Amino acid sequence: xxxxxxxxxxxxxxxxxxxxxxxxxxxxxxxxxxxxxxxxxxxxxxxxxxxxxxxxxxxxxxxxxxxxxxxxxxxxxxxxxxxxxxxxxxxxxxxxxxxxxxxxxxxxxxxxxxxxxxxxxxxxxxxxxxxxxxxxxxxxxxxxxxxxxxxxxxxxxxxxxxxxxxxxxxxxxxxxxxxxxxxxxxxxxxxxxxxxxxxxxxxxxxxxxxxxxxxxxxxxxxxxxxxxxxxxxxxxxxxxxxxxxxxxxxxxxxxxxxxxxxxxxxxxxxxxxxxxxxxxxxxxxxxxxxxxxxxxxxxxxxxxxxxxxxxxxxxxxxxxxxxxxxxxxxxxxxxxxxxxxxxxxxxxxxxxxxxxxxxxxxxxxxxxxxxxxxxxxxxxxxxxxxxxxxxxxxxxxxxxxxxxxxxxxxxxxxxxxxxxxxxxxxxxxxxxxxxxxxxxxxxxxxxxxxxxxxxxxxxxxxxxxxxxxxxxxxxxxxxxxxxxxxxxxxxxxxxxx
Length: 497
Fold this sequence. Notes:
Blueprint: H1 6-17, H2 22-29, H3 33-41, H4 51-64, H5 71-78, H6 86-108, E1 116-123, H7 124-131, E2 142-148, H8 155-162, E3 175-184, H9 193-206, E4 210-216, E5 223-228, E6 232-240, E7 243-250, H10 253-266, E8 274-277, H11 279-284, H12 287-293, E9 298-301, H13 311-325, H14 330-346, E10 349-354, H15 355-364, E11 366-369, E12 372-375, H16 378-394, E13 398-403, E14 418-421, E15 427-429, E16 439-442, H17 445-459, H18 468-487
Parallel strand pairs: 2-3, 3-4, 9-10, 10-13
Antiparallel strand pairs: 1-7, 2-5, 5-6, 6-7, 8-16, 9-14, 11-12, 14-15, 15-16
Helix pairs in contact: 1-6, 2-3, 2-4, 4-6, 9-17, 12-14, 13-14, 15-18, 16-18
């Protein structure tokens, strides 16, 4: 029997899960039922000219046909919280499989990939297209290991590789079933610390909604290797910033899994570049205190945290949120705040703050409170900003500088992390949807060195500006919001439910 193409396999799987009859689907897409049968059997594909409309109608028909008995199966399959999110997720899955089959037709004349394919040379565009295999749309359970010399490719391709798959980072989804481990080379090339640090922070932030681990090793030099357990693998040798030689793709599950396990052996604990943690865990193991007492403390604020809270507001927030935080008791929180207040008053501290942090905080009031995202009222925002301004004015120890947008090579669609830096302890605090393991602690001296060089160079940059104008403007803006909130009755927001 002729092997079915991937699009047909998926379409049959979806219609079977939804208990969707061919004649119902035919009516929804306005095609004869015989076409539906041929699409499912693999004898025919939807026409390329109309395929987007057809796939939209198919995905909508599937969602419309769901009952209370099978809707949970689909929600679990695509790891989406609500049925309203299913249609775009199913469409994206169908589109990726359709495009994969059409690309095979164009390049090989067949709709089903051979078990092993060999290409003497591919551009990185072509390589990345093959790397974005449709199997990556699996979000309930996916295991990937990769060894990629990502810092040695053209910058236009770096984030295309690092984004892994758009399905994994859109709509704010947290996908604990997606496991991705990446090994890169930090030692074999001459790296610009500012660009490298910025790129790594963006990489960790962009993939923070999946189980992502980053490793370093010279084994990754000139390598482009990517393996999905039980499904697919792709490997090649990087010869310059935009070309690979001797590229091999493997669709055989046993062979690709063998390569997967060989990569996993190389990604050992000794090669781990960052260690994942959380604020409750850092407090439990005294690492939070360690970060406060470390020498030469500095921070780059991608979002505001509990560190600059006035004592009365800190108590107020503890009273309201201590039960939700749960893993940290009140005594520990009060102790951390008391230590922080004394350090800010007497210890030299440098703080770089993105100018966008003031705008975001003014409008949303979002605060990272010991790793938990909370929203302050306009009155609370005003007290926070006035206290920060007061600290800046009365303390000779706290040095503030503002980092204009665009100074670093960062990407506007990626939430900026906060970097806490010191001589002997540093960590990244990600703006993540969940507080579990949103802390990245450098596990290698080389990474600490890169972050330190990056910070010192940025701090000394002439582009950094004094904070007075930003603080004054933010305070004035919040005063307007506060006055408006008194006049206008509170309107329910999504966060209220």
